Amino acid sequence: MATTIDTYSEHIHETLDAAGRHHGSAFIEVLQNCNIFNDGAWRDFTDRDVRDDRVLRLKHGEPMIFGKGRDRCIRLAGIRPEVVELGNGIDESDLLVHDETDATLAFILSRMFWPEYPVPVGVVRRVSRPTHHQLISGQIELVRADKGEGVLRDLLFSSDTWEVT
């Protein structure tokens, strides 16, 4: 699951590339402007002059830092995220580090939105599981190991009915 912004061309490219490299299904939320039905709906945080201060670009394994001066950050206060500034006793070790595999963190990020928080964009959650093709191939290998390779000609000419178990 990922989020990106239609006017953030470099980021949308990275997000689509990550989805294409993922084995299995991928869901991407694109915050997209429509001139007819929601013109300017995302302008509060997508305009170039405010985007750096209002969008949190997620990168796996990196602390959640944003802002034009890269001085605003996210840390946890218990189980609630809070926006803080680097300095005055706060350093990178105090910050929340993004982990695409953490379901709890994905839940927290799903609740963050402007104006209380910066809008998180990027891969929010990545789940690595076997694909359908991998599962089927695994089942075939198990049957071959248990019953042998099998000969299709013998099966076709064995009888009028077959029993599939």
Let me know the number of strands.
7
Radius of gyration: 24 Å
How do the helices and strands follow one another from N- to C-terminus? EHEHHEEEEHEHH
Largest sheet: 4 strands, mixed
- The number of distinct structural domains comes to 1
Secondary-structure-based class equals alpha/beta
The number of distinct helices, counting runs of at least 4 residues, comes to: 6
Distance between the termini: 38 Å
Give the strand line-up of the largest sheet.
2-1-7-3
**What is the overall silhouette?**
elongated
Low-confidence stretches: none
Share of β-strand residues:
15-25%
Overall pLDDT: 91
Summarize the amount of helix as a percent range.
Answer: 25-40%
Description:
The protein is of the alpha/beta class. The chain is built from 6 helices and 7 strands, in the order βαβααββββαβαα. The chain has one domain. A hairpin with a 5-residue loop joins strand 4 (65-66) and strand 5. It is elongated. The model has no long low-confidence stretch (mean pLDDT 91).
Features:
single chain, 165 residues, alpha/beta, four-stranded mixed sheet, three-stranded antiparallel sheet, 7 strands, 32% helix, elongated
What does this entry show, briefly?
The protein is α/β, with parallel strands linked by helices and 165 residues long. The chain has helices spanning 9-21, 43-46, 48-54, 103-110, 132-147, 152-156, and strands at residues 2-5, 28-31, 55-57, 65-66, 72-77, 80-85, 119-123. It has one domain (2-123).
Task: Draw up the topology in text.
Elements lengths: L1 E4 L3 H13 L6 E4 L11 H4 L1 H7 E3 L7 E2 L5 E6 L2 E6 L17 H8 L8 E5 L8 H16 L4 H5 L9
Parallel strand pairs: 1-2, 3-7
Antiparallel strand pairs: 1-7, 4-5, 5-6
